[in-house]
């Protein structure tokens, strides 16, 4: 298909498609004549991925380029590819100053994850996020340590197992990454919203005066 | 106890305690002499709540004042009180321009929540968040509608039921609110981090080459 048709199917402007071509995010089409090229379903998939990364993941062009480069690196396993996408999505603070309190919390988090038997990289952003939470909890007098995380870890394990299992096997690498990004970002927000609504519901069952 | 002891026990400065007194966030002590007052465990609880709302919830003074006013309004049920705290925690965008797409999504979300049998207010922020997610999903070609939310709703229901059940019954109103704020904000971050780590683990089981 021509670039105009590609843009129409991707629901973005031709100018934006050209911008992604210039930035190296979208692979070039097959040249069919002077100033003309032909695009196919792979290009459409890529545009859909870029859109998901931008609109849903809120990623900047530089981060998207890293994800795209990983997809094109055939030497990376799917697992490594998903790791690249996860790290691109991590926009948390990285400038925590070291302190014995934080060091202790980090050690506790690493032990906790090892105890779960989870195979995750030592630089996975989630380790730092859990460390921050543990420090915040201790500061307001919740000294339960990582034991406080246990019921959440069980729920997260069940949810992630189901989410990873439901990614279709036959999929392209770029689609697997899109699935991960969407599932990570959108369904994280969905779950948080549902949990707050469920809090309201269950607190009404527990605390509200029953109607007569 | 005197203000210096109160500050020490709350692990904040005397200047900060005085600031909260001036702002009306902390109730005054019992006057025991010129320029002297006595404080008790209720003041300490309040300071701990303010700290949780500020450091963990990231709330501004104005929002904290709304929560504190609700705590002091004995006419509010605990359930209403938790609703005030939840709305104070909602910092999402409120300026969405109306469109038929958004209106349809909102209707679908309201029907979905009604179908769950959840008793939540029509202005609960979670309804808007789910609406935004539904619109974002449709824009990247996921047209599954609210059926996509169903497994997450089941998990959220189980988690919230357990969280609300484990708030001790004998507690002060302010402690119940602190529990909710901490549980909502910190454990939301904890669960999100654990889910990402679990994604990495389960994707390694599914995609990584097995070691020989």
If you had to describe this structure to a student in words, what would you say it looks like?
Two copies of one chain form a homodimer. In chain A, strand 1 (30-33) and strand 2 (36-38) form a beta hairpin. Chain A contains nine helices and two strands, in the order H-H-E-E-H-H-H-H-H-H-H. The longest helix of chain A is centred in the C-terminal third of the chain and has 35 residues, at 173-207. Chain A has helices at 3-10, 14-22, 41-56, 61-72, 78-89, 100-116, 125-139, 150-165, 173-207, and strands at 30-33, 36-38. The relative contact order of chain A is 0.09. By secondary structure, chain A is mainly α.
Offer a concise description of the structure.
Two copies of one chain form a homodimer. Helix content of chain A is 66%, strand content 3%.
How do the helices and strands line up, and which of them pair or pack?
The structure is a homodimer of 212-residue chains.
Chain A: H1 3-10, H2 14-22, E1 30-33, E2 36-38, H3 41-56, H4 61-72, H5 78-89, H6 100-116, H7 125-139, H8 150-165, H9 173-207
Helix pairs in contact in A: 1-3, 3-9, 4-5, 5-9, 6-7
Oligomer: homodimer
Distance between the termini of chain A: 67 Å
Mean pLDDT rating of chain A = 86
Structural class of the secondary elements of chain A?
Answer: mainly alpha
Largest sheet properties of chain A:
2 strands, antiparallel
**Outline of chain A:** elongated
Strand content of chain A: under 5%
Tell me how many strands of chain A there are. 2
Strand order of the largest sheet of chain A: 1-2
Number of helices of chain A: 9
């Amino acid at each position: 298909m021509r670039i105009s048709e590609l843009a129409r199917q991707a629901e973005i402007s031709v100018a934006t498609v050209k911008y992604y071509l210039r930035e190296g995010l979208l692979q070039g089409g097959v040249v069919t004549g002077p100033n003309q090229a032909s695009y196919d379903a792979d290009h459409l998939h890529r545009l859909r991925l870029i859109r998901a990364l931008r609109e849903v993941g809120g990623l900047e062009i530089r981060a998207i380029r890293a994800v795209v480069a990983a997809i094109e690196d055939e030497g990376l396993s799917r697992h490594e590819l998903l790791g690249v996408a996860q790290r691109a999505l991590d926009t948390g603070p990285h400038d925590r100053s070291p302190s014995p309190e934080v060091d202790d919390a980090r050690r506790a988090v690493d032990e906790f994850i090892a105890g779960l038997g989870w195979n995750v990289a030592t630089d996975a952003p989630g380790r730092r996020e859990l460390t921050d939470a543990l420090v915040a909890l201790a500061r307001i007098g919740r000294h339960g340590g990582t034991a406080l995380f246990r019921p959440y870890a069980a729920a997260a394990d069940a949810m992630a197992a189901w989410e990873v299992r439901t990614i279709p096997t036959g999929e392209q690498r770029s689609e697997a990454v899109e699935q991960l990004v969407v599932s990570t970002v959108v369904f994280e927000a969905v779950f948080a919203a549902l949990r707050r609504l469920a809090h309201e519901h269950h607190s009404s069952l527990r605390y509200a005066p029953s109607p007569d």
